[in-house]
Amino acid sequence: MEASSSSSLWGGLNSGIVLSLLAVAWTMLWQALQGLQLHHFFDRHSRRLSRRLAAILDPDLTVTIAEYNGGRMRRSDAYKEAKAYLERATREARGGGAGGGVRHLRAEPDKDPDRVLLSMDDDEEITDEFRGAVVTWRACTAPQREDTGPAYFWRGGAGQRAERRSYKLLFSERHRDLVLGEYLTHVRREGRAVMVKNRQRKLFTNISGDGSWDSDGFWSDSVWSHVVFEHPKTFATLAMDPAKKKEVMDDLDAFRNGKDYYARVGKAWKRGYLLYGPPGTGKSTMIAAMANHLDYDVYDIELTSVRTNTDLRKLFIETTSKSIIVIEDIDCSLDLTGKRKRKKKKKEEEEEEGKKDGDKEKEDDSNKAGSSKVTLSGVLNFIDGLWSACGGERIIVFTTNHVEKLDPALIRRGRMDKHIEMSYCCVESFKFLAKVYLDVDDHPRFDAVAALLREVDMTPADVAENMTPKAPGENADSCLAALVEALEKAKVDAALAKKKKAKGNKEDAGAADDEDEEEEEEEEE
Ligand SMILES: Nc1ncnc2c1ncn2[C@@H]1O[C@H](COP(=O)(O)OP(=O)(O)OP(=O)(O)O)[C@@H](O)[C@H]1O
Ligand SMILES: [Mg+2]
């Protein structure tokens, strides 16, 4: 027993010495390797080796979430959600939380230009815990297949993307049900929430939307191209009758929270707004404020660039939920106004003249405005046809300077549910703009401005422009003086224009009287 104990003592001492020597040797080797910059190589391979050893001892189940699945050219939603979830886990891990240990990170531009978004680099791992089950996520890359299909050429041939990425989720057999049943749902849901939080809103246009490179470096043949939407206008800086503004904001809130209501009454979850009023009264500005209020994307349709009704439908189908679809100056974009009436009149004329090929000419005539063949019925279908119900949560906004010119079918309730008039600057709007632009609540010149605004029409755009300091020395006094001057000039101009118009009307009436007399004389003769 003794011998064995003394031998075990010696054995223990020996092994202690051996271990100490090994540790010293390893430290020296490590320092030498660091000098040679080879530690990255050994670090990576030793981790791989330990992972393989662990896998042999305790085989895990795996779930792979690939970045691109099937023949699809779009990133899979599940991958994007897992990525967002793991980005958050990586962020938290850096603070010493669960799932730490990520040493090689990938940095991508963040929404905030001063920061970067960190995710784990290829071959990195992160652990996560869910109701007592510890799982491991591994970022994997595989060399891309030699792709010779059309997508290969769209992407500009070789070198566009060298690898295919995926996430592998490793977990123990005993957590199979928990992970497959609940954890994956949890990851997707949380990932989606992170994505919504980090979402950069976009402004889409259909001009030159025949395809573009998307943010993932892939060629997308979408009919839309986009930029980041960064309009600073909010309802807090939009001059408008306060009651009217509140009504619009309440209406938008009711729409956003109305999913159940729309489902209950069996209506597609969309709402049409018609903004009308003279140029410079804030229609486009209101759209920006709406988008910022709702946190929606904006799809700005240039209708004259849409060739056919089918293209218009395609544009609609490719819009996403939570978006505002805008057609500005609808009266100018297309000859939608009274087209049906004119067609009818023309038909009657043609019938009188016995024209046989009248239909063809009629078509040609209606297309003269441009190469666009979008018709009123195409636009009506776009707003409330069967397709318009796809996707949900969309707001459609039309703007016009001439509401009276629009076909009543286009703007009837149900299509354009809410009509909002944007009008010239009133006294309340002026005071609001004075506060926003000059930071003044009251000023001796306010009365003069108010009196002039009651007599003369000036748009909020002009009022705002006059109240914008344009040189270093300018202040509220000088800006308000400039505004009074501009209003007085506008008053004189308006009086002159009125006089001229009255004179013109008189002359027209005189000419008409002469014509009538001539006609009467002819008839008498
Ligand atoms: N009601 C308003 N409140 C605050 N600023 C306004 C308002 N109306 C106009 N403006 C200012 O005037 C400028 C022009 O306004 P906006 O482009 O919205 O006019 P619009 O009604 O769309 O004109 P148009 O009919 O010519 O398209 C904007 O940059 C905005 O700053
Ligand atoms: Mg506008």
Automatic annotation (TrEMBL):
Membrane-spanning intervals of the chain: 12-33
Residue ranges of the region described as Disordered: 341-372, 497-525
Annotated catalysed reactions: ATP + H2O = ADP + phosphate + H(+)
GO MF terms, alphabetically ordered: ATP binding; ATP hydrolysis activity
Composition bias type Acidic residues, residue spans: 510-525
Residues annotated as domain AAA+ ATPase: 269-426
Keywords on record: ATP-binding, Magnesium, Membrane, Nucleotide-binding, Transmembrane, Transmembrane helix
Cofactor dependency: Mg(2+)
GO biological process: response to stress
InterPro entries: AAA+_ATPase, AAA_N_dom, At3g28540-like_C, ATPase_AAA_core, ATPase_AAA_CS, Mitochondrial_chaperone_BCS1, P-loop_NTPase
Record bears the keyword Magnesium: yes
Compositional bias per record (Basic and acidic residues), positions renumbered to this chain: 353-367
Family, per entry: Belongs to the AAA ATPase family. BCS1 subfamily.
Protein name from the UniProt record: AAA+ ATPase domain-containing protein
Species of provenance: Sorghum bicolor
Lineage: Eukaryota, Viridiplantae, Streptophyta, Embryophyta, Tracheophyta
